[in-house]
Amino acid sequence: MSERTVGTVSRGIRCPIIREGDDLSKIVSQSVLAASRAEGFELHDRDVIGITESIVARAQGNYASVDDIAADIRQKFGDNTIGVIFPILSRNRFAICLKGIARGARKVVLMLSYPSDEVGNELVSLDLIEKAGVNPYSDVLTEEKFRELFGVIKHPFTGMDYIQYYGDVVRECGAEVEIVFANHPQDILLFTDSVLCCDIHTRAHTKKILKDAGAKLVYGLDDVLASPQNGGYNENYGLLGSNKATEDKVKLFPHSCEDMLYDIQKTILAETGKKVEVMVYGDGAFKDPKGKIWELADPTVSPSHTDGLNGTPNELKLKYLADNDFAALSGDELKQAISEKIKAKEGNLVGQMASEGTTPRQLTDLLGSLMDLTSGSGDKGTPVVLVQGYFDNYTS
Fold first, then answer.
1. d(CA 354, CA 344)
2. What is the pLDDT of residues 358-374, one digit of tens each?
3. What is the DSSP string of 100-126?
């Protein structure tokens, strides 16, 4: 038997355009099996099938209108001035949500973090802040003061002046808007004690700070449309993970995916005799070093996955072994020594020098990042990704 020469392979799988009500379990299974036959590759145990969250939500019909958002906002906040704090700067991610918030409010105090939002979109550079003598850790700036100090600054990728844009979104919905810039959650209490937290990964801490500081009403985007009402919902994440669908509608993060994932697993097992793992993925967890923007605007990389994808990798660092434990060996002797070391590795390598630098992130975060890069966010037409050999090692 010849030695394997290929490790992990990630394949984008082309599928039909998915519409509401489509049998996604059947479509995904058939698409993977058809690709296997057409391209001449076999499926194996522990291959991973990833399905992008957008087609799952689309098949579910998990959409919400601006009016749906507005109704929930009115129910939660009544006629109070709403402090909308720490949103990310995104037409795709937040603008339609803001439209719904504004439609349900009388007045909005929009508090933006600076110099950048949570995922790295820059409002103003640190160089300009230092030149102006501003301390972003303590100073609260009005819109007028911000403009006086920094003028109009447009996003380098989109060309948007998000301060003007977000202000216009609120005004066009008939609500009054005041925009301020600060980085401490409790600073919003200078303006109102009713707060909607729009941060993603720090939301629990932000809510705690506000409640401890005496805020009367505290909700997050994850609390808006978190239960079935007139349209879509997500019981875990609410509006978090939503994307613009139209000018008056958002596609929410998918919910209740488990049955579909296990149906796909059962179908592939019946057709091939191989037990694959299946997951839904959204944004990858990586950062663009040039634009300084963190990709993960979703609340999690994978909202749902089969049980075999629980946990973190348990890997040895080959270069550490080669440079330290077996520095005197080379060629076949080195290969044999490293192979034996891998075969004998313990069930949990955390804290051992030989695993240092292997980054013990969740398997679904690592796989989802690979899948997101494979499928892209444009016109590749591959909303399903098949990853093979991910759980192999040097001895496989």
1. 13
2. 566 789 999 999 999 99
3. HHHHT-SEEEEEE-SSB-TT--BSS-H
